[in-house]
Design goal:
single chain, 78 residues, mainly alpha, 77% helix
């Protein structure tokens, strides 16, 4: 979906949010099994913050691209 479209432009906001979202989902599933892994929990919180900041930037700069991205990644709007 987004990965194929943005493979040549890895610095774009969409690609960064896509990769952060994949890492967040992977870490969340890891933390369901390992509830006391606090260093991974800290990493998850940092990734969530980065992803939120990028989404806020994209929403401010280009609302159409923002709406398209959150619908493609199936993430909720803030």
């Amino acid at each position: 979906m987004v990965k194929e479209e943005k493979q040549e432009n890895r610095g774009s906001v969409e690609f960064q949010v896509f990769s952060f979202t994949n890492k967040i989902r992977r870490l969340a599933s890891h933390l369901e099994l390992h509830k006391k892994d606090f260093s991974s929990e800290r990493g998850l919180r940092r990734l969530l913050g980065k992803c939120q900041r990028l989404l806020a930037y994209l929403a401010k700069k280009n609302r159409v691209r923002y709406k398209k991205l959150i619908s493609q990644l199936d993430i909720r709007e803030k």
